[in-house]
Amino acid sequence: MKRIFLLLSLLYIFLFSQFSQAQIPTAPSNLKVQYIFSSAINLIWNDNSNNESGFIFERSLDGNSWIQLKIIQPNITNYADIGLIRGTKYYYRIYAYNASGKSANSNVISVIPESSFDCSVGTDTLSSPYPFYTTYNNARTQILYNKSEMTGFCTVGYIWSISFFNKGTSYVQISNCTVKAKSTNDTILTKFIDSGFTTVINNQPITFYTTGWNYINFYNYFVWDVNKNLLLDICYHTTTSAPNNVFLGSTATQNKVWHGHSSTTTGCLIDSGSAQTLRPNIRMINIIDGVRKISEVAPANYSIEQNYPNPFNGSTKFRFKIKEYSPITLSIYDVLGRQEVVVFSEPLAPGEYEKSFSLSEHQLPSGIYYYCFVANGFVNVKKMVILK
């Protein structure tokens, strides 16, 4: 009898062990890089289970000491790690978990964020005065970049900034500039196109500082259809002409640039021009997590500005500065101090950033709220109001 009881006990222990093990999620696999940027990467993996409560993402600087980076919801198979330091080697792994325990770890990968930009067109070193033909105080230029010509990671369709290579102008500010962008199936330019554009800079100055790549940051991001070509419309009006044009690094092309300049007609109203054979090289800066990096310059202190607009109904923006590489958290609380939303929680490199927040993604009722910005021991709380 004792022997039978012992055998049944062992069988029960075996079956319970097998049942428990069967409930633990299968480890995710094939962790790999989908996109790599100058200060961010996007990682993807295979979800091999249907019973996980979520995933735990871990990162290491040496492949041995790991820190928990993010808890990810079940059935998600991608993660964007932003605010990375260029040239630094990072290791990543992920595992699934549920109430029964954690899975084995996925494969480990190592990544070094590239110092190059996201997406570029043109590599030659010729000099073109377009679109900033500043010996005339009015000019308009349309520039077409075909999808087939683009190199790099040109598959994230949120463009926050473009960059042209200044060939030598020491310093010039061009006032009253307007920049528009459009996704198009057109492959050549034979005239100015006037419809279908999104304005990303409206009657604002554009400044070229030194030789090299100079940023032109958009005031509103442009949602580009990555399956189409990109058309830019750049025009300006200044009160006086300059002694020299702004020459940009360019590549010889045919039917990709249409330009006109005038001493009398306001730049954006110019409707006649001609084809040019030199097209400025371009680099486009995309964003992946809604956190836009405005400046690489490290500020003296941490800070966050008042959200704008405030009050708001729909969306608002938070702008903040990071003194040094730090874990950053921005959260929203109600008047009773209850946390409603974690806007984001990521490590970020030094610089100035902007984060958009939309009520379409986070359903909050009308009322008074407080947002708390935490950065490496620095804490700042500000009030915001939602009006519907």
Outline of the structure:
The chain has 388 residues and is mainly beta. It is 6% helix and 53% strand.
Query: Unreliable stretches, pLDDT < 50, 5 or more residues?
Result: none
Secondary-structure class: mainly beta
Q: What gross morphology would you assign?
A: globular
Provide the β-strand percentage band: over 45%
Q: How would you characterize the largest beta sheet?
A: 7 strands, antiparallel
What's the CATH topology name of the largest domain? Jelly Rolls
The level 1 CATH classification of the largest domain is Mainly Beta
**What series of H and E elements makes up the topology?**
HEEEEEEEEEEEEEEEEEEEEEEEEEEEE
Identify the quaternary structure here.
single chain
Q: How much helix, percentage-wise, in residues?
A: under 10%
Count of runs of 4 or more consecutive helical residues: 1
Measured on Cα atoms, how large is the radius of gyration? 26 Å
Integer count of domains? 3
The count of β-strands is: 28
Give the distance, in angstroms, between the N- and C-terminal Cα atoms.
75 Å
What's the mean pLDDT score?
A: 86
At CATH's second level, what is the architecture of the largest domain? Sandwich
